[in-house]
Design brief:
The protein is α+β, with helices and mostly antiparallel strands and 457 residues long. A five-stranded antiparallel sheet has the order 2-1-5-4-3, with helices on both faces. The longest helix has 52 residues, at 2-53. A hairpin with a 5-residue loop joins strand 11 (416-420) and strand 12. Helix 6 (203-236) runs antiparallel to helix 8 and helix 7 packs antiparallel against helix 8. It is rod-shaped. The chain has helices spanning 2-53, 57-67, 95-104, 138-141, 145-189, 203-236, 238-249, 255-279, 296-313, 333-350, 382-392, 401-410, 442-456; strands spanning 73-77, 86-89, 108-112, 115-123, 129-137, 294-295, 318-321, 328-329, 357-363, 367-374, 416-420, 426-433.
């Protein structure tokens, strides 16, 4: 916008300067010419009275010398009363031009080498017509014109430069508030809820800044209300959780009792985590650093140990691979645990007892891929399943399981895909980017699938 204003102002000012300067320059040139010929007419008029009195050469030479330089003035007297024609001074005009002026009886100008001449007819006492010739050189006609044109050019350039400077200042006054508004919107989009815009600039931009600040305040208030609501709802779960914990304590000993108590303890930890997160004053917007995250192999081993007990009760075969060595990922441990529990819980919930399942971890150069597969009937419509994961809650599902997995992957720049597994059922592939700025290479995904097929043979 700033440069557009400067260009428009430059074009308009240039056109105005040209429209006025060119005609004015031509007028100055014409005025200089009129001034030069007016001086020539005065010189010719100074000789006319002497010609009406006498035609003697000596007297006329003195008159011509006193009126002007004889190098620029000449007097042409025709033959009359038996006297010969007399030419005084240096003549430059053609004989035919002099004869024409004498015949017409009025002054005339004619072009000669180096300039122009003024031919002024003068009536003599004898009735004959003499012609006074005054030479006007070109330098006298253009005297002062170059200087005047230079002054006009300087004035025009100064007007153009001044208009550009004014337009630039006006553009800055308009652009800077717009830039601050864009920066504030960008910061608010990044999660910096304290971003505000100074209410400065033109009226329209000032009103936009007021509206933006009001919107930002409302966003902060809405987020605060949402956090309070989540904390309150989570806090209400403490009472039924306490009852469950007491009932689980009275179950006695055994694998089922241990699993129930472990599940109740984990549920209490998750509720506490939700309450603490909701009560935080600042949202989590920073990207996890190089030292943050968890060991995916360790988390998978721990969760498979938990779910293996239930798998044995239901007669399910299970397998885990790729967890022999540490696999660091930029994901919080609690988030990965929640995602794995959601996927494994879906396997137990939506497949019949005795259905096999597997969890594989593949560590690549720029991504870690976690695959959870089963030998169940599969998913007829993967897109609809992902839509449920985004929160529609159809078919008796809360819609949160796949949504938890999706948000975990997308927080690192990865994604989630549903497909058919080599076991014959569903396969959920979670791509976790080690560097969120680089996309996962398709070739790497194909290599992972080929290695997985070879491992299952």
């Amino acid at each position: 916008m700033r440069w557009a204003l400067v260009k428009v102002c430059l074009a308009v000012t240039t056109m105005v300067v040209v429209a006025f300067a060119v005609p004015l320059g031509l007028v100055i040139k014409e005025m200089a010419r009129d001034r030069a010929f007016s001086n020539a007419e005065r010189q010719a008029a100074a000789v006319a009275p002497a010609l009406s009195i006498t035609t003697e050469r000596e007297q006329l030479e003195r008159v011509v010398a006193s009126a002007g330089s004889d190098a620029q003035m000449a007097v042409h007297i025709p033959e009359a009363d038996g006297k010969q024609a007399v030419d005084i001074g240096r003549g430059r005009a053609a004989v035919a031009d002099i004869a024409t002026v004498r015949k017409m009886g009025r002054a005339s100008t004619t072009e000669v080498p180096g300039g122009s001449t003024l031919l002024q007819p003068v009536a003599l006492s004898s009735g004959a017509i003499a012609v006074v010739e005054v030479y006007v050189p070109e330098s006298e006609v253009s005297n002062g014109v170059g200087t005047a044109w230079a002054v006009l050019a300087v004035v025009g350039a100064a007007l153009v430069v001044g208009s550009v400077a004014v337009a630039d200042r006006l553009g800055v006054r308009m652009v800077q508030p717009a830039q601050r508004l864009a920066e504030g919107a960008h910061e608010l989009g990044e999660g910096k809820l304290g971003a505000r815009v100074p209410e400065e600039g033109p009226t329209e931009l000032r009103l936009a800044a007021v509206a933006f600040n009001s919107m930002a305040d409302q966003v902060v208030q809405l987020l605060a209300n949402e956090r309070e609501l989540a904390a309150d709802l989570s806090h209400r779960l403490r009472t039924p959780l306490t009852v469950l914990r007491l009932n689980a304590a009275s179950l006695g000993e055994g694998p089922a009792a241990d699993q129930t108590r472990a599940a109740v303890a984990q549920l209490e930890r998750e509720v506490d985590t939700i309450i603490r997160t909701a009560r935080e004053a600042k949202p989590q917007t920073a990207v996890a650093g190089a030292g943050a995250g968890c060991d995916a192999a360790e988390v998978v081993r721990e969760r498979m140990k938990f779910w293996s007990a239930l798998a044995e009760d239901e007669g399910r075969k299970w397998r885990v691979a790729g967890v022999e060595r540490p696999v660091r990922i930029p994901v919080a441990r609690a988030d990965l645990v929640a995602a794995l529990d959601a996927l494994l819980g879906n396997v137990f919930r939506h497949t019949a007892e005795g259905t096999a399942f597997a969890v594989d971890v593949h560590n690549g150069d720029d991504a870690v891929i976690v695959l959870v597969s089963d030998a169940g009937p599969g998913i007829a419509d993967p897109e609809a399943a992902m839509a449920r994961g985004r929160g529609s809650g159809a078919d008796g599902s809360t819609g949160l399981g796949l949504d938890i997995v999706r948000r975990l992957a997308e927080s690192t720049g990865g994604d989630v895909r549903l497909g058919s597994s080599v076991l014959g059922g569903t396969e959920v592939r979670i791509w976790i980017q080690l560097d969120g700025r680089r996309p996962v290479r398709r070739g790497h995904r194909g290599a992972v699938r080929r290695r997985r097929r070879l491992a299952l043979r």
